[in-house]
Amino acid sequence: MAHETAKDLKLPVLVVSLVDVGRLLREIEALDDTLLQLHVRQGGKAVAMPKTSLLMDQLIELNSLNLLQAADRQRLQRFLTLVKQKAPVLHISFAADPSVVFTQKLMTWLRREVHPQLLLTIGLQPSIAAGCMIRTTNKYFDFTLRQKFGAKRDLLMEKIGVSEAAA
Amino acid sequence: MTIWWLVLILAMIGSGGIAFIWLAVRVGRATGGPVVSTTGRPNSIEAAAREDVDHLFNDEFREELRNRGRLHFEKIIGESAMFLQQDLRLTTSQLNEYMKDEITKKLQEEFSKYEQSINDAKQLAIDSIQKTNLAIDEQRSTLSAQVQKEILTEKQQLLQRFENNMADIINHYVLAAIGDQIDLSDQLEYILGELEANKQAIVEDILSGA
To answer: Which of B71, B101, B129 is the last residue of a domain?
Structure first.
């Protein structure tokens, strides 16, 4: 059941981390509570409608949901709960804080090529200089400039030898 | 040689003096009392001879002889003193010359010994200095070789360390030099390329679960 829900719904690229998923989950719970209160309210009393966030708007729009319907709300809530519990999380470290556009492009590729519900935990490591380091559940991928230098060490030594010979 | 001459002259003077004293004693004994014969009677011949002698060698003559002897003795004494003085001067000069020669000879010998000792000490010092220099040269060459070896080893260690940590060093250099100019957005294609190259491994690891 949960797997089917996960297949039906999609996560927008702005939803990056477990924090975003948790925030959406809290938001949908709050919305559900508000609508429940509206349903049981007494007439003649003014009720403030809850406002949805940008992430929630994108999530609703992407999945064509109507949150006034309790079934859609429950479906979205189950989906988010499932994502929070089961979605694969990729830890990625950069030298600087990535921009939103950069993160969106990266998430687009990852969701398309790796897993549709993939989440990221973005870290900062200034010593990377360039590139990134990725850690999955069991593996570690070093795409940094340092690793490139290490891999091309022979070429660098050859160039240094040529420079010393020329000097 | 001169000492022997001096001794000979002194012996001659002494013998002359003894002869003079002996002669004076004999003359004094001859002018003594009358000769009495063993029989107790005066000998007339002897008396006559004594009278002749007294007549010939009267007091004036004796005084004359005594004066002459005294003069002769003084003359001999003066000559002897003069000879003695000359001999003494000669001896003194020869002695001075001898002493000078001996002292000079001794001094030359001592000086030559001293010079020889100085030369020996000098040679010994030169040998010691040469040995010390050789030892210093050997130690210096040994130390130089050791230092060269240490430097080479240190250099090789530094080079090895540099080679081992070259990636980190260059990465640190790049980061320090142009770290603030590296834009993450420019690296997107490179990162996506690396992800594409390792996509299979990432997907497999994610799908394999925990």
So the answer is: B129
ipTM of the complex: 0.75
CB of B194 within 8 Å of a chain A CB? The answer is: yes
Can you give the residue range of the structural domain that contains B190?
A: 178-207
CA–CA separation, B148 and A3 (whole Å): 72
Q: Tell me how close the Cα of A88 comes to any Cα of chain B, in angstroms.
A: 6
| Continuous segment of H or E residues that includes residue A104 | helix A100-113
More confident residue, B7 or B183: B7
Residue B68: inside a domain: yes
Query: What CA–CA distance (Å, rounded) separates B140 from B75?
Result: 92
Other residues' Cβ atoms within 10 Å of the Cβ of residue B34: 9
Taking an 8 Å cut-off on Cβ atoms, the answer to whether B191 and A132 are in contact is yes
Chain B residues 45-104 with a CB less than 8 Å from chain A: none
Mind listing the pLDDT tens digit for each residue in B136-174? 999 999 999 999 999 999 988 888 887 777 777 777 777
Q: Check CB contact under 8 Å for B166 and A115.
A: no
- Tell me which residue in A88, A126, A147 faces B206 most closely, judged by beta carbons: A88
Do residues B19 and B107 share a domain? yes
Query: What pLDDT is recorded for position A1?
Result: 41
> For chain B, how many structural domains are there in total?
2
Residue A93's SS3 state is strand
The answer to whether residues B198 and A145 touch, using CB atoms and an 8 Å cutoff, is no
Give yes or no: residues B105 and B183 share one domain. no
Put simply, the answer to whether A95 touches B199 (Cβ < 8 Å) is no
